[in-house]
Amino acid sequence: MGLLTIIRKNREKEKEMRLLFLGLDNAGKTTILKKLNGEDISSISPTLGFNIKTFAHGNYTLNIWDVGGQRTLRPYWRNYFEQTDALVWVVDSSDRARMQDCKQELHSLLTEDRLAGASLLVFANKQDLHGSMTDAEIRDALDLPSITTHRWRIWSCSAVTGANLVSGLDWVVNDVAGRLYYSTTTSPQAPPPPHAIPGTAN
Amino acid sequence: MDNSKWTFLQTFTPQFQAIASAKIEAAKLAPAPTQESFQDISVLLSKATKILADATGGIPTYDQRQYEIQLKAFERSIESLRASSAPKPKFAFKRKAPNPGAVATSTAQVAVAPTPTPAPEAPSSTSSNLVLSSQSHKYITRADLAAHAQQTDLSIFDLEHCVVDLLPPDASDAPDAKKHISISALHARNLTDCVLLLPTVEGSALLHDMTRCVIVVGCHQFRMHSSTKIDVLLAISSNPIIEDCKAIRFAQYPDIFKTPSERTQTLPTICVQDFSHIRATPSPNYSTMTDDDRVGLADALALAHRSRSSIDELSDVLLPK
C-alpha cells in the first residue's frame, strides 16, 4: 500500500477538515462563525488574535480557524496556513472603498505554497445591507475568474440573518470531501459509472 | 495470492483503459465544455485515481507508473481546457448574438436563449449606496442627502471643514417616518476638521484617515485606522479598536442626542483596544476624556446642533492643530 493511501485512510478515519477564515477587518468573519454555531452575535468585538471553533457538519468535524483581519494582524496569517483544506475568504459587500485592497490580499494569499490545492469559498457577506454590492459585482471586483490555481465559488450571504451560511459551508465541505475522501462521498450528480471497479478490499 | 493478482490485472487493465479512453473522448469531443462536463471529467478522473491507488501492489510497478503518467496527462489537458474556456460568458454571448437574425423561424429558442446571458450582468449595475463626498465648509443635514432607502449604509469621503449632522431635528421629538433614517453601516475616509453627529448605526463603523475631527456615533462595532487628533463620543457594547492612530480621546455618547429608549439602556464602560500597541502597558495613543471635557464638548455640540453653527464657530471644539 502506498504512502498516499495510508495517509488518506488515516484521515478518513478522523473525518476532519481544517478551514481557515480570512478577510479584511470588518468583514464579519467572527460573526459568521458565531452565527453558524448558534451563539450571540450582538457583542462581538474586533478579533485580537484568533478564534478556533470545532463543530460537526454532516459527517465531518470542522476545525475552523478565524484570524483577525486588522492590518497589524495580517502578517500573522501565514502562521495558520499549514494543513488548511479550505480557505474561506469573507468580504464586506458594503465596503466599496476597499475592494482593491481586498483583491490584493486575496490574490497574494493564493500564491502561497502552503495554501495550494485548498478550495476557496468567497463569502459576499452583509447582503442584508441595502447598499451592498452583489455577488456578481464582487466576483468582478476581486477578479475571481482569473483564479485557476484553486477551485472557487462565490456565495452571497448575511451573517446577521444567517442567510446562505450553511449552504456555502456545504459547498466547501463537499468540495474538500471530494478531494480528500472521495472514496466515501456520495455526490448526487455523479453516480458511479457502471464499469467502475470495486476497490480492492484489504 | 499470485492467482488473485493475475485475475485482478486481467480485469483492471481493460477497464481502466475503457475509462481512460471515454475520458479522452469526452475531453476532445466537447467543443465548448460546460461546468458540468468539467465536473463529470473530474469525477471520472478521481475515480480512476482511486482505482489505481487501490490497485497499488496488485499490478506491476511498470504498469502502475504508466497509468499514473497517463492520469497526469489527462489532468493537465483538463486544466488547459478549463483555462481556455475561462472567458466563456463572453464567448457564449457572441455566439448567440447573430442567432436572432439568422434563424428567424425558431422564435421560441431565440426568446429563451438570451435570458440566461444577461442575467449575471443585470444586477451589477443596480446596487448603489448612499455617499456623501467632496464637500468643504458646509453644514450637512438629512435634507442634503441624495434620495435613499429608509434603511441604508452610508459612506462619507473627502470632507473638510464640514459638520455632518444626521441626528433627528430634535432628539426628544419622535421622528416622523419621512425624516427617519436608519443607517446600517458607516464607512468614512479622509475627513479633516469635521464634526460628525450621527445617530446609532445598527452595524459597524469603519473610519480611515481622519484628522482633527469630532465623531459622535453609536454603533455595534467601531474601528478607526490611521487617524490623529480625534474625539470620539461613542455608544457601544463591544470593544472599539484603533490601529495606527494618535491622540484619540474617547467618551460616552452624550445623553442629549440619545432617543428616549436609548437613554434607558446602560452601556458598559468603553474598553479600547489599540492594535498598534499590543502590550501589557497602556497605549500612549488614546485616552479617556475627563468628565469636564466631555460635558463641555457635549454642550458645545448640542448648541451647534440647535443653531446649525458653521464649523468656524465650532473650531474650538476640535483638538488644536
Automatic annotation (TrEMBL), chain A:
Q: Which GO terms describe its molecular function?
A: GTP binding; GTPase activity; metal ion binding
Keywords in UniProt for this one? GTP-binding, Lipoprotein, Magnesium, Metal-binding, Myristate, Nucleotide-binding
**Binding of GTP, residues:** G23, L24, D25, N26, A27, G28, K29, T30, G69, N125, K126, Q127, D128
The answer on whether this UniProt entry bears the keyword GTP-binding reads yes
Q: Which SMART domains match?
A: ARF (SM00177), SAR (SM00178)
Recorded family membership: Belongs to the small GTPase superfamily. Arf family.
Show the NCBIfam families listed in the entry.
Answer: small_GTP
Q: What is this protein called?
A: ADP-ribosylation factor-like protein 2
Protein species of origin: Hypholoma sublateritium (strain FD-334 SS-4)
From TrEMBL, chain B:
Name the keywords, alphabetized.
Answer: Acetylation, Cytoplasm
Look up the signal peptide feature and give its range: none
What is the name listed in the Swiss-Prot or TrEMBL entry for this protein? Answer: C-CAP/cofactor C-like domain-containing protein
Q: Which Gene3D superfamilies match?
A: 2.160.20.70, Tubulin Binding Cofactor C, N-terminal domain
Primary localisation category: cytoplasm
- Organism, as annotated: Hypholoma sublateritium (strain FD-334 SS-4)
| Organism placement in taxonomy | Eukaryota, Fungi, Dikarya, Basidiomycota, Agaricomycotina
Task: Please note every region of biased composition (Low complexity).
Answer: 104-114
Q: From its record, what is one biological process in GO terms?
A: tubulin complex assembly
